[in-house]
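hi!! sorry for the late reply, been swamped w classes. u asked for the two structures so here they r. pasted raw, havent cleaned anything up. first the sequence of the first protein and right below it the tokens
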Amino acid sequence: MRPIFVRVIRVLDWPTYHGWIWIDAYELARSGDAVARRSLFVMPAGLIWQDPSIQAVRKTVRRPVARTPLRVV
């Protein structure tokens, strides 16, 4: 088994066993981009919550935009 990192969308109000919950989440790639949507059956006590102030580091690529006249008809 390997751990996955997810961004929780919501906790679902589905019937379940005591101590377990269903969550909707996006699985995240190393870059922090969402790669799959998942419904997970988990024990909250077994989850490791990441500090929300820690963000995935992404390099922003800025490209100049060509400014040319535009004709509107």
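now the second protein. again sequence first, tokens right under
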Amino acid sequence: MNALDLFWHLCNFLAPAWVVAALMAGALKLLWRQDLRSRGWRQLWVWGGVGGSLALLAALVLLGRDGKLAGYGLMILAIALPQWALAWGQGLLGRR
């Protein structure tokens, strides 16, 4: 495998995490516009993308191969947790 093939393999491996993180960050900014006004879209996206990438890597190591449903479930959880923590830090989830 040459360097270009390795680059595309890594991009395709990490793409689900970064795309889902972008969609989730956009939905958060759309649904809770006033509450998340001090948090930038990019900040939510990057934290979610990093969490999802780490989860995909952990799933690859633990499960032995990519593309298992448990790995994608872990990815969704790892994307949502940092974004939830950023929103909770502002008191978004503490209000009733």
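hope this helps!! also noticed smth abt the second:
The mean pLDDT is 89.
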